[in-house]
Design a protein that fits this description.
It holds the Pfam family Response_reg. By secondary structure, the chain is an alpha/beta fold. It is 27% helix and 34% strand.
Length: 236
């Protein structure tokens, strides 16, 4: 089931979108907003997986809103203006639907969203675009993940055998949603470790079983914001 939230400054546009959504199977409109600021204040508390955003709105554009939530919500843009298409897709959104919106075109956008939502469910593997193409990676083979030093939007995965794979354009938030929570933990803003790769856990750092230079093991500093969640994992 797709649970969506609508944001459009025009009440007639909201009513029309609701009507179309009601005619599409497995789509539920959870809530609708006509003010971007109210939307942003409430979106974190709403159980939804897709947001339909109008691009042209007074005060704050849909593009600006999407920049704040696209890491953890799937975005479908609607607009009467074609010139925003390139900028919209730079944000890695699901789709860009031109007004006047037709039911069939909106249904296509929801179909894309459903595929992305389904693929982000916690499984024993993740599937994503990498430096070697579309790749399936079994989570039990993952030892360590870090933010790429070349492009911070990418993430470097190190497998148990030392193989390195680059996940393209994927946030830590979305990545953690794909990984089984019982097997992985984020230790700081730039690093995630498989619990099976932890050798020693202390107040300030994690010592891993991963070789750093042939003689020493990789040590990861624990960020202040992650200390409590890590302590809970180890029953502290």
């Amino acid at each position: 089931m797709i649970k969506c939230v609508i944001l459009d400054d025009e009440l007639l546009a909201i009513s029309y979108l609701k009507l179309l959504c009601e005619q599409i199977d497995h789509v539920e409109v959870v809530k609708a907003f006509n003010d971007p600021k109210i939307f942003l204040n409430e979106i974190d508390q709403i159980d939804c997986n897709v947001c339909i955003l109008d691009i042209e709105m007074p005060g704050m554009t849909g593009l600006q809103v999407a920049e704040l939530i696209s890491d953890y919500k799937k975005i479908i843009f609607t607009t009467a203006y074609k010139e925003y298409a390139a900028e919209a897709f730079d944000l890695n959104v699901v789709d860009y639907v031109r007004k006047p919106i037709k039911k069939e075109r909106l249904a296509q956008a929801f179909e894309k969203a459903q595929q992305l939502v389904s693929s982000s469910q916690k499984k024993d593997f993740i599937e994503w675009n990498t430096n070697i193409g579309k790749t399936v990676i079994f989570t039990e083979q993952i030892a360590y993940i870090k933010t790429s030093e070349i492009d911070s939007r990418d993430k470097d995965i190190i497998l148990n055998d030392g193989t390195a794979i680059v996940l393209k354009n994927l946030s830590f938030k979305n990545l953690l949603e794909m990984l089984p929570a019982k097997d992985f933990a984020q230790v700081n803003k730039k690093e995630i470790i498989a619990l099976s790769s932890i050798k020693v856990f202390s107040t300030h750092e994690v010592i891993t079983t991963i070789s750093a230079d042939g003689e020493n093991f990789l040590r990861l500093p624990i960020g202040e914001a992650y200390k409590n969640s890590l302590a809970k994992l180890f029953g502290k």
